[in-house]
Structures are given as structure tokens and as C-alpha cells.
Amino acid sequence: MSPLTPNDNIEAEAVAKNLAELRERISAAEQRYARRPGSVTLVAVSKTQPASAVLAAYHAGQRDFGESYLQEALDKQARLTGYDITWHFIGSLQANKTRQIARHFAWVHSVDRLKIAQRLNEQRPPELPPLNVCLQVNIGSEQQKAGVELTQLSILAEQLSKLPRLRLRGLMALPPPSADFEEQRSFFRQLRLAYEQLQSRTYPLDTLSMGMSTDLEAAIAEGATMIRIGSALFGERPRKR
Ligand SMILES: *Cc1c(COP(=O)(O)O)cnc(C)c1O
Fold first, then answer.
1. Ligand 1 pocket, 177 CB below 6 A?
2. Ligand 1 mean position to 36 CA, how many Å?
3. 20 to 30 Å CA-CA from 184: which of 2, 119, 194, 239?
């Protein structure tokens, strides 16, 4: 890492302040919705942010980071070797990227088809523990969106649970944006019900990855165990890469 510049210091202060506020929001929501304190893990979504921003959050105690774009993530990871960071891949998955993802991430939240799961399973290096995986569900059945349909979910879970180098941890969703709290909740509720249904079929799931900067309270109300937060921590992202 290059030495910190005055700009980085300003950025670091802002990130630390945002992180403190986020932790307040999370614990307030845990309390309000009768969730066990500390039962919601914050994944800091650092896509499009520089390594210095990751480091600022790290120094304020953050350890889990989420990335969506493989090359950008690999560059950042190379600059941050030696730090105790758990990397989560949350972006769209293409077959030609699975080898690097299987090697450089501890979690993948966006698995939505068998072929990709099989590749990750085959390509997970033997010296690493099994790759933690969430199945992404297309909860609003949006045409343009990734994710397995609810009707196909149990088949995919069944297939995935047989792959020894993957550990099926739970479900992830990115519901249609809504400003209405009850509507946000109703999407998250659908994911929770699907999750509970799989659990009742003896899958040992422990992860509901749902909730972002603008809907984390609704997600926590419906049982989120991991929330993925970008802009509320690092500020608004540049519009489009
Ligand atoms: C970008 C992104 C997030 C974070 O979104 P914010 O609104 O910035 O909190 C969460 N999950 C996924 C899958 C993303 O791509």
C-alpha cells in the first residue's frame, strides 16, 4: 500500500463514522425486532471503492467485505494481502470466472445454477476449506435479474448439497427496489419462508443474506443474518462502471 495521503485521512474518518452509525442501526433493528444481539453480520460491499477505503473500514474493525467485479476484487486483494479479511463474492457469475473465484473468496452469495456450482466445486483448491455458498433466489421473478426461481430452488439445493467442496449455507436475494417498508418486508419474508422450508428438509442452513443500505431494517425484521451494505458505508458509488 502506498502511504496515506491527506485525502485518505478524510475518507478514513468518514468511513469510520458511517460504520459506527451502521452498527447503531443494526443493533437498534436487532432490538426492535427481537433478534439476538450480534446475530446480524455486516458485509461491507466495497465494489468500485479503492483499497484505501477497505483499509479504513478494516481499521475501524470491519472484517467481511463483498465484491461484485472479479478483476477489480483481485487487484484489491493483491494490495491487501496479510490482512485478516473474509472476502465474499456477490456479483454475477460466469463460467470463465469460477476458477479465480473458487481460489480467492471464502463465500459466494450468487450461485443460481448447477453448472456454476459444479465448476466451483471442482475448482476449489484442495488446501482450502469448502467454499461457503448461498443460492441467489429471484424473489420478485424479475426477467432481467439473476437468481433461481422459487419453484426450482429445492431441486438446486438438493444437487448442490451433494457437492463436497461446497458448503451450502443459505439463501440470498436482491428484491425489486421499493421505498415502502411493508413491501420490502414482504419480499424478504418470501425468502425467509423458502429458507425455513429448506431447513425443515434437514439442510443445515444458517445464512439469510438479504438487506442493503436502504432496506436493512426490513431485512433484519424478517430474519436476515447477513446484510450487504455499500453506499451507507462508503458513500454513493459512481453511477456505472
Ligand atoms: C451493490 C450491492 C449491494 C450494496 O448495495 P448498497 O445499496 O450500496 O448498500 C448489496 N448486494 C449486492 C448483490 C450488490 O450488488
1. no
2. 24
3. 239
Q: Write the burial class of residue 31 (CB in 10 Å: 0-12 exposed, 13-18 middle, 19+ buried).
A: exposed
In this structure, is residue 212 part of a structural domain? yes
CATH of residue 138's domain is: 3.20.20.10
Give tens-digit pLDDT for 150-166: 999 999 999 999 999 99
200 C-alpha to ligand 1 centroid (Å): 29
Q: What are the average pLDDT values for consecutive 10-residue runs of the chain, which has 241 residues?
A: 62 95 98 98 97 97 98 98 98 97 98 98 98 97 93 96 97 96 97 96 93 98 98 83 49
pTM of the model: 0.95
Judge whether 157 lies within some domain.
yes
DSSP 63-100: -EEEES-HHHHHHHHHHTTTS--EEEE-S---GGGHHH
Number of compact structural domains in the chain: 1
Over the stretch 22-58, which tens digit does the pLDDT of each residue have? 999 999 999 999 999 999 999 999 999 999 999 999 9
Is residue 86 situated within a structural domain?
Answer: yes
Compute, in angstroms, the gap from residue 83 CA to the centroid of ligand 1.
Answer: 23
Q: Tell me which residue range forms the domain holding 21.
A: 6-234
